[in-house]
Design brief:
Blueprint lengths: L20 H4 L2 H14 L27 H12 L19 H15 L11 H4 L3
The structure holds flavin-adenine dinucleotide (FAD).
């Protein structure tokens, strides 16, 4: 991922609400905060930071509402009519999938296209509480 193998790329995530102090902080202040925390966590080992940027991602997480399962069941039932449609990933399934689940559903979808009958909706059951 990086041109110079002596360097590494590091992402720091700060969870916040739109408009709060973190969200509204300047890029400079947030980069300063992350740098200090890397130092405190002893993850920098004195290494310099060559470059940094801040990306604010609104609505980053799917939020389940009470009763969402019933609504989702309706969507799933409707989509099941399309035999050539595979729903995968986090947003494609409205499941709180991690990266591994998302990739796995893509893998199973590919198998289905090749003739398998994998149930993609059974991936990550525990997180959705559908088990
Ligand atoms: C802040 C944050 C932190 C996370 N941390 C972790 C973690 O530590 N570990 C972990 O396992 N998972 C983590 N995840 C979850 C992980 O990122 C997702 O599970 C995974 O990226 C979902 O993959 P996906 O392919 O379903 O969707 P995405 O990776 O979101 O890909 C969907 C793609 O479709 C594109 N797209 C959307 N609409 C259209 C359109 N109309 N036309 C064309 N393209 C479109 C988007 O631009 C995007 O590139 C995190 C997610 C977030 C938001």
């Amino acid at each position: 991922m990086v041109a110079d193998p002596a360097t590494s790329l590091l992402g720091m995530e700060y969870f916040c609400d739109e408009g709060d102090a973190i969200w509204s902080g300047s890029d400079e202040a947030l980069i300063g905060l992350a740098s200090r925390e890397l130092e405190e966590l002893k993850l920098r080992h004195g290494a310099g930071i060559r470059d940094a940027c801040v990306i604010r991602v609104p609505m980053a997480y799917p939020i389940y509402e009470t009763g969402y399962r019933d609504a989702l069941e309706g969507v799933k039932k409707h989509l099941a009519r399309f035999s050539n449609l595979q729903c995968i990933g986090r947003y494609g399934m409205f499941y709180y999938n991690g990266m591994d689940h998302s990739v796995w559903t893509g893998f199973l979808a590919a198998k289905n296209i090749l003739g398998a009958h994998e149930d993609l909706w059974s991936v990550n059951m525990e997180a959705t509480g559908n088990a």
